[in-house]
Specification:
The chain has about 220 residues and is of the alpha+beta class. It contains four helices and 13 strands.
Length: about 220
């Protein structure tokens, strides 16, 4: 069993140590109305957004008795903690999966708390809460042929959870390594740009031309 978060680029973050328990909160929504002289009345609405919460830790050292994957897969605890902080600031939903279960839902990270313990240097403990996301479905009222109003579901296309790639217009004097350095922060990533734009550039990665529109990873 693995606990996985996947971002809009399809990049997987696997929690290295499975939590001992997972809490899934489900609530019924109610619209409360106060009627004069009669008090409050509850009118049931749709289900509220579910919350999924669990706690675990990022170990400094690999231990096959409780760690998932291999030693090479073990993330640095500080890096893993920063990744959760990045997830917390995202405005696009992630996908949360617990393998070998039916849990496979789009979520937002709503809270994340880290703890450092003096007797276990290097390890980072955390609590995380996820809120399930669902696409808003708007309804519009239209007049029917009989003159009466009718409510129809506004069928908008589903929101694409995948993050769209950026593009770059080649300028005079550009090279793939220069573009990779300016746009991606690492000149060695030029090969990624080349692989994504091979049909445009051709067989020679040095033969880019001004005006070409390149897709960036």
């Amino acid at each position: 069993m693995e606990f996985i978060l996947i971002n809009g680029k399809g990049e997987k973050f696997t929690f290295p140590v499975n939590p001992e328990e997972v809490s899934i909160s489900r609530q019924k929504g109610f619209d409360t109305t106060t009627i004069l002289s009669y008090g409050e009345f509850d009118f049931p609405q749709g289900d509220k957004v579910k919350e999924i919460s669990f706690a675990s830790f990022f170990p400094k050292e690999f231990d096959e008795s409780f760690c998932q994957g291999s030693e090479q897969d073990l993330p640095d605890p500080q890096t893993a903690m920063n990744t959760l902080n990045e997830f917390l600031s995202l405005k696009a939903p992630l996908r949360f999966i617990i393998t070998e279960t039916a849990v496979n839902v789009p979520v937002f990270v709503s809270s994340h708390q880290s703890t450092f313990r003096g007797g276990e240097p290097g390890d980072v403990y955390f609590d995380i809460t996820l809120r399930t996301w669902r696409e808003m479905k708007a309804a519009k009222t239209a007049a029917s042929s009989s003159g009466q109003s009718a409510t129809a579901v506004n069928k908008k296309p589903r929101v694409d959870m995948k993050q769209k790639n950026k593009s770059y217009i080649v300028k005079s004097g550009d090279s793939l390594s220069k573009i990779a350095k300016l746009e991606l922060g690492n000149s060695s990533d030029w090969q990624k740009i080349y692989q994504m734009n091979k049909k445009i550039i051709g067989s020679n990665p040095s033969a880019i031309k001004p005006g070409q529109k390149l897709v960036l990873p």
